[in-house]
Every structure is written in C-alpha cells, then in structure tokens.
Design a protein that fits this description.
- The chain is 71% helix and 0% strand.
- With 235 residues, the protein is an all-alpha fold.
- The protein has a domain at 2-164: Four Helix Bundle (Hemerythrin (Met), subunit A) (Up-down Bundle).
- The radius of gyration is 19 Å and the shape is globular.
Length: 235
C-alpha cells in the first residue's frame, strides 16, 4: 500500500484533473429532480471546502511534498490536526462526494468516489510511513491520540479560541482550489438546466450564468495578481 501511495502522490497532479472531467461524463441520475442534487451535493461540497479553509486558516502545512515526494519538515499536531490527522483529505473527499452528487451522476457516486477514497487511503499510508520513519515514537503517540479519518470534535472550541485564524493565508493558499471547485459547480448547473429543463430556459439564463462566471474569474484573477505582485501576503 505504501508503494501504491507513493505512486499516486507523485502523479496526483495529473490524476485529479481526470477525476474532474469524469463529473461531466453522461450517467444515470441519482435524483429525478436535479435541484435536489444541487442542494444536497452543494451543501456536502461546501462542508468539504470549509474544512480546508478552516484547516489552512489555523495552521499551514506543506501539502505538495518535496520534488513530488512525500515530505514534512515537522510533525504538525496543532489546529484541526489535533482533531483529525488528515483534515485536508477529509475536506477533499467531501468536496468530491458533494460535487459528484451535485453532478447527479450515479456513475461518479458509485465508481469514481470509492476509487478516489482508495487513492487517498494509499497516499495517507505512504505519508504515515514517512512520518513514522522520521519522527518515530512522537508520531506513534500522535496516531494513538488522533483519528486518521474521523474528526473528534471534543475541545474544538478551545482550538479556535487558542488559535489565530489567518484569512489572508486562506485566500493565498486556497484561491485556486476554490476557483476550480466553483467553476465546476457552475458548469454542472448549466448542464442540468440545458439537459433537464429546456434549451429555451438555458438561453434565458445565459446572461446570469455569464455574470456569475465573470465575477468568479474576476475575483480569481484579482487574488492571483495580488499574490504574484506581493501586494497581498500572509505572515
């Protein structure tokens, strides 16, 4: 499992866009009414994104490894990591599950999501192998006290009260993931309206869709510009 996890970690930047495209593959529907799919899926996906925002806002961790290999400078156990060992991955799974439901794709829900969870489970095993080899007993104790997947919310209020939430860091570190997720949701809603309502309704709502996409792109571009020009920086 560790070897499989190292493989997926190395190539995950190529693999996950493929998952993204599978959201748009024709599939049997989960709900007859796409609005139910959008509501339920949207809430779940937003919970996942909020989990990522909260985790990054309280404490930052090197997520991309080093040279596309698993790497960590220190064992991070503060913030949300004191309640769950892999809160970012929990957020990712919720986002993928929610977006798959929002897509109203039975294929994605039954086939892609379980495979996605397997990929992350393998990556986690590879990361844990690295952390155990580097930090030894310190990581073993952490693994005993904190769940791998299921968050333990006991003491969560103390975590927030004793930590400083850095919103600027969230903007700078998470703007790209948020943009990709939002654009996917917008395009999926457009697809639902076009295929399940009517072409006429889609045409009527095209200016609204264009406005929403335009605002989303504008916000994304602004944050990217401010980051690149270093006019917006986190401490």
């Amino acid at each position: 499992m560790v070897k499989i996890g190292n493989f997926f970690f190395h190539y995950r930047n190529y693999l996950f866009p493929f998952f993204y495209l599978l959201l748009f593959v024709p599939s049997p529907l989960i709900f007859a009414d796409f609005r139910m799919a959008v509501l339920i899926g949207g809430v779940i996906a937003l919970m996942g994104q909020a989990t990522r925002w909260t985790t990054i806002g309280l404490v930052y961790i090197i997520r991309g490894g080093k040279d596309r290999q698993v790497y960590a400078e220190k064992l991070v156990t503060e913030g949300i990591f004191s309640h769950c060992r892999n809160p970012m991955y929990v957020g990712n799974v919720l986002m993928l599950l929610g977006t798959g439901i929002l897509a109203n794709s039975l294929f994605f829900f039954l086939m892609v999501t379980p495979f996605f969870v397997f990929v992350y489970q393998a990556i986690i095993r590879a990361e844990e192998n690295f952390l155990r080899n580097k930090f030894g007993a310190e990581f073993d104790q952490y693994a005993i006290e904190v769940n791998r997947w299921l968050p333990n919310l006991k003491g969560i209020s103390d975590t927030f009260s004793n930590s400083e939430f850095k919103g600027i860091r969230v903007l700078l570190k998470e703007y790209n993931t948020t943009f990709v997720w939002l654009m996917g949701c917008i395009l999926l809603v457009m697809k639902h309206v076009y295929l399940q309502v009517s072409v006429e309704t889609f045409q009527q709502k095209t200016p609204l869709f264009g406005l929403v996409i335009g605002i989303t792109v504008l916000v994304y571009g602004t944050i990217k510009f401010l980051k690149k020009t270093k006019r917006l920086q986190s401490n």
